[in-house]
Amino acid sequence: MARNFCCEILPEIMKRWSMRALSPEPLPHYDITAICEAARYAPSCFNEQPWRFMAATSPTDIERLRSFLAPKNRRWADVAPVLLLILAKKTFARNGKPNRWSSFDTGTAWGYLTLEAWRRGIVAHGMGGFDAEKARSELKIPDDHDIIAMAALGYPGDPAKLAEEFRESEKPGERRPLPDTLLSPDHFMR
Ligand SMILES: Cc1cc2nc3c(=O)[nH]c(=O)nc-3n(C[C@H](O)[C@H](O)[C@H](O)COP(=O)(O)O)c2cc1C
User: What pTM value is reported for the model?
Assistant: First the structure.
């Protein structure tokens, strides 16, 4: 596998990757707002915009969100100047019915967010390794909100300061070839 691209695409898509070496340098409030603004423009089913981002930027809020992270994630993400908890509202505001596309739409918004962050020289690194139930109970997150992921945001840091266990994988992730993703409609019928 390789990170080779067969055609020209948006440079942010081509270049973005999830660094773990982050700098503790605070992020300008304007950039944090702009990154979330990019997510705001993502398409969603019935334009419901089911995504919600709980952003921790103050020491107290960061400490609170940090406490949900899996120990392995804390070993690199503890320095991040911004942590996000990403939620998806599971029901349509328009009629209260289940919105089965809420995770799909929230993932789209997350993708937009990562690209705008990258454009601004900021890394947005998603994390599934955290205690969602602890987050739900401590933050009193209602049942009609799925807890999707967390994310660490920060400027790229010094890879030499990363814990040894992360050094080898500190590079852009590889991708499987496009034909493995782009399936013909009879793929599963064969
Ligand atoms: C939903 C989600 C959960 C992830 N969970 C973790 C995690 O818990 N810890 C971690 O270090 N990286 C995590 N990642 C980062 C992925 O490992 C990374 O995006 C993937 O390997 C592709 O690499 P790239 O983003 O550098 O292209 C997560 C990413 C996503 C989108």
Answer: 0.96
